[in-house]
């Protein structure tokens, strides 16, 4: 049976840089070159501008399908690498390990990028981010470094596993491990059997094998985007950043409408932490998923993904309406 037009269109969205998109470099204040992708709005009055930031070890190539959906809805869409990820260099001791000296580096980059981007694009301005990106962006908002009209966080990394241990205890353990050696060393090693790595990693990310394969396809086309394990220093700094957001009064001061998407069986980030954050944020809405959903909500099977995108569209229509 031949593929449907919808499925062919979806596959094209996932494995093609749109012809109207521009890939370029943005330079941070210290001169560091960060890769970005910009797609102008469709013909007609723009809906507004949306900046999407990916998660740890991610590249924006993985998220082209969702960005295409937002573009069809009228948004001007931009995405970028985090410094040290994808095609924006590395900060560790090798080409595979993900490392950063402090998450404040990423907060600074994001705040500067947001200032440049929002000054040159039509409003309303919306921030969307996934996983680690969600934590960094929420921190930038909480620290009043950026002020989007609306904020959408997909599986934000507001806590790590094991979820039954307080973040402060996990942080103490990570500090101790970092003190025993080079904090840039990888926190885990890959299996010698690639097929086992694929199965285990896919089980954590999505039920949709075709969408999971899209990431592997892009890594074949652009091998330099691939990243492996996080460093112990990354883990320690991640937990330090989480602890900052857990301080009383920090999230309670956020005055931006915020939509949080999360899955109760997420094997990478803490669902209880996402729920706690939703209770603390004054203008938060929470959409939760069960066993039908894994970590990459916007790359899940169609029924899950469609529900998530519908929730995002409804939220943005209410909190970041198109300008008259």
Concise description?
This protein is an alpha/beta fold. It has 10 helices and 8 strands.
List keywords for this structure.
disordered N terminus, alpha/beta, 324 residues, eight-stranded mixed β-sheet, Rossmann fold, single chain
Overview of this protein structure:
The protein has helices at 5-15, 64-72, 103-119, 132-142, 167-179, 194-205, 209-221, 232-246, 271-280, 302-319; strands spanning 22-27, 33-39, 48-53, 75-80, 125-130, 150-154, 258-263, 284-289. It has 324 residues and is an alpha/beta fold. The protein has a single domain, classed as Rossmann fold. It has an eight-stranded mixed beta sheet, with helices on both faces. Helix 3 crosses helix 4. It is globular, with a radius of gyration of 19 Å. It starts with a helix and ends in a 5-residue tail after the last helix.
Distance between the termini: 46 Å
Question: How many strands appear in the DSSP assignment?
Answer: 8
CATH homologous superfamily identity: Alpha/Beta hydrolase fold, catalytic domain
According to CATH, what is the class? Alpha Beta
Give a quick account of the main beta sheet: strands, pairing sense, barrel closure: 8 strands, mixed
Helix/sheet category = alpha/beta
Describe the protein's topology.
Layout: H1 5-15, E1 22-27, E2 33-39, E3 48-53, H2 64-72, E4 75-80, H3 103-119, E5 125-130, H4 132-142, E6 150-154, H5 167-179, H6 194-205, H7 209-221, H8 232-246, E7 258-263, H9 271-280, E8 284-289, H10 302-319
Parallel strand pairs: 3-4, 3-5, 5-6, 6-7, 7-8
Antiparallel strand pairs: 1-2, 2-4
């Amino acid at each position: 049976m031949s593929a449907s037009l919808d499925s062919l269109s979806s596959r094209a969205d996932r494995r093609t840089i749109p012809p109207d998109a521009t890939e370029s470099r943005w330079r941070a204040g210290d001169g560091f070159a960060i890769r970005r992708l910009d797609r102008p709005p469709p013909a007609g009055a723009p809906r507004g501008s949306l900046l999407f930031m990916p998660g740890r070890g991610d590249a924006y190539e993985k998220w082209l399908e969702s960005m295409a959906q937002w573009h069809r809805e009228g948004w001007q869409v931009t995405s970028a690498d985090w410094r040290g990820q994808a095609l924006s260099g590395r900060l560790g001791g090798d080409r595979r390990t993900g490392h950063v000296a402090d998450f404040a580096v990423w907060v600074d980059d994001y705040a500067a990028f947001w200032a440049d981007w929002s000054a040159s694009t039509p409003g309303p301005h919306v921030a969307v981010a996934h996983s680690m990106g969600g934590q960094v962006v929420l921190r930038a908002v909480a620290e009043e470094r950026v002020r989007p009209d609306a904020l959408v966080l997909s599986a934000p990394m507001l806590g790590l596993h094991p979820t039954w241990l307080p973040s402060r205890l996990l942080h103490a353990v990570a500090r101790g491990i970092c003190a025993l050696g080079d904090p840039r060393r990888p926190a885990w090693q890959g299996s010698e059997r690639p097929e086992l790595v694929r199965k285990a990693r896919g089980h954590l990310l999505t039920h949709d094998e075709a969408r999971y394969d899209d990431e592997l396809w892009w890594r074949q086309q652009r091998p330099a985007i691939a990243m492996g394990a996080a460093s112990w220093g990354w883990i320690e700094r991640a937990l330090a950043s989480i602890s900052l957001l857990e301080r009383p009064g920090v999230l309670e001061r956020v005055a931006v409408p915020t939509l949080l998407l999360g899955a109760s069986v997420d094997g990478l980030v803490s669902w209880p932490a996402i729920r706690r954050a939703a209770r603390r944020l004054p203008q938060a809405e929470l959409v939760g998923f069960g066993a039908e959903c894994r970590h990459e909500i916007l790359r899940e099977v169609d029924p899950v993904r469609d529900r998530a995108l519908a929730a995002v569209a409804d939220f943005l229509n209410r909190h970041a309406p198109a300008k008259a």
